[in-house]
Design a protein that fits this description.
- The chain is of the alpha/beta class and 436 residues long.
- It folds into 2 domains: 3-63 and 312-423, Aspartate Aminotransferase, domain 1; 67-309, 3-Layer(aba) Sandwich (Aspartate Aminotransferase, domain 2).
- The chain is built from 13 helices and 15 strands.
- Strands 4-10-9-8-7-5-6 form a 7-stranded mixed sheet, sandwiched between helices. The protein has a 4-stranded mixed sheet with strand order 1-2-3-13.
- Strand 14 and strand 15 (379-384) form a beta hairpin.
- The structure holds pyridoxal-5'-phosphate.
- The site of pyridoxal-5'-phosphate has 14 residues, from helix 5.
Length: 436
């Protein structure tokens, strides 16, 4: 038996039995083998450009040598650290995160950090903090949004995730993307916060217009309501700035980061919030702990990640790649007749197709041709296209050749026979905003 067959059998027996048949439809039934830089290989040696990067985990590529060195050095003299004690690594990283957010023209800045080990946990803390600080119970969030599968974060996401688990979350009110321009009409005395992914990923990387985001910030401020931004996918240089909210010239009250903060090597996530919220702990400083949150090994990885994400030269490279992909996909719009455009801020990008079935077919062809990518699950007319930020221009050229070939080969597929597509929510976005 090959190691691929053996792994598939083990997966089928001891992990998820129902994922594999679905994954086969799109060429996602890969058993990962070697990985390095912008590539990974399946155990049989087929090479893939990683254009999924686990939502940003591999922003710095696979097994980035600087991250590996920092983590190896840390392993030489540290361990996870004790969450009851003070930590030099954690304290320094907190300062670096706060400073990375900078200040607005009116001098607003972030103040403090709580570390966690997963993105859902970081968003759970954001919601807890918003409710605790304001003493109010309601969070406004986006229909079709995604913040993780843990408790509160699952409640803030799409209904299909909570329904399946018979979980009836309280206090989360869902609004549509177009409702953001009249966000104030949803406020009441119990509204604690508005929570958004700065650019919603699972909802198809539909870019919230600048005026809309500024309106949301202005209205939340005027009504004493907090603004929480989920930067778990959009942050850490992915958008061409350190944080995507910096494109909008605003400062949230709370934001969460994760995924890429790990450097792809050691999990660590964080919730960053304004200084005055610290008063929540006044009566009892013991109301929140996370054993693995902010482990000292994770801090070593995150330190290198933040060095990259705040480096102007690194960000200039991200923006140069972004321009390259925009031009290349714009050409495809004219040449292929199958592509409608690219939704894009920096390298936070998705290729939008003329219809869902062409998109699903293109995703399957891309994977067959060695470009690993997925469609946005709550807007399946677009394929998320997130190459590692460290990709060279030469690699980007080679990647686009495969993309062109795959789109050429894509034929609309009849999705009515697929249980998955016939029973799940269809695309929700009728006209997406593609750029800032
Ligand atoms: C925008 C966003 N927020 C939160 C999460 C949850 O992160 P985690 O899977 O680490 O809990 C994800 C994960 O995909 C995400 O994309």
């Amino acid at each position: 038996m090959t190691s691929r067959d053996e792994t598939i059998q083990l997966h089928d027996t001891y992990l998820s039995r129902h994922k594999l048949p679905l994954f086969r439809q799109f060429g996602w039934d890969v058993v990962e083998g070697k990985r390095e830089g912008v590539f990974f290989w399946d155990v049989n040696g087929k090479r893939y450009f990683d254009c999924h990067v686990c939502g940003g985990v591999y922003n710095l590529g696979h097994r980035n040598p600087k991250v590996i060195k920092a983590v190896s050095d840390a392993l030489g003299h540290l361990d996870l650290g004790n969450h009851h004690l003070m930590s030099t690594e954690r304290s320094r990283l907190a300062r670096k995160l706060v400073e990375s957010a900078g200040a607005t023209s009116t001098g607003e800045r972030m103040g403090r950090v709580v570390f966690s080990s997963g993105g859902g946990e970081a968003m759970d803390f954001a919601f807890k903090m918003a409710k605790g600080y304001t003493g109010k119970s309601k969070i406004l969030c986006l229909e079709g949004g995604y913040h993780g599968h843990t408790g509160l974060s699952m409640g803030a996401g799409d209904e299909k995730y909570t329904k399946a688990w018979n979980y009836k979350p309280e206090g989360f009110m869902k609004i549509g993307l177009t409702d953001l321009d009249r966000i104030e009409t949803f406020f009441d005395d119990e509204t604690a916060a508005v929570s958004l992914e700065t650019i919603p990923a699972t909802l198809g990387m539909n870019v919230i217009p600048r005026e809309t985001m500024q309106h949301v910030r202005k209205m939340t401020r005027e009504h004493g309501i907090l603004l929480i931004l989920d930067e778990i996918q959009t942050g850490l240089g992915r958008s061409g700035k350190t944080w995507a909210f910096q494109h909008y010239g605003i400062m949230p009250d709370i934001f969460a980061t994760g995924k890429g903060l790990s450097g792809g090597i050691y999990p660590i996530t964080a919730t960053v919030y304004r200084d005055e919220m610290e008063r929540v702990y006044e009566q009892n400083p013991m109301i929140h702990f996370s054993t693995f949150g902010g482990s000292e090994i994770g801090c070593a990885a995150a330190d290198i990640v933040l060095d990259h994400a705040t480096d102007p030269e690194f960000l200039a490279h991200v923006n140069a790649l972004s321009d390259f992909f925009r031009d290349a996909v714009d050409d495809l719009v004219i040449q292929s007749g199958k592509v409608s455009g690219i939704r894009q801020v920096g390298l936070f990008q998705a290729i939008e197709f003329v219809d869902v079935s062409t998109c699903i077919s293109a995703v399957a062809r891309l994977n067959a041709n060695g470009v690993f990518c997925v469609f946005s699950n709550n807007d399946r007319v677009c394929a998320q296209f997130m190459p590692p930020l460290v990709m060279t221009m030469e690699e980007a050229g080679e990647l686009m050749t495969l993309v062109r070939q795959s789109i050429d080969e894509a034929e609309p597929r009849d999705l009515s026979s697929s249980d998955f597509f016939s029973t799940q929510t269809e695309a929700r976005i009728t006209s997406a905003n593609r750029h800032l």
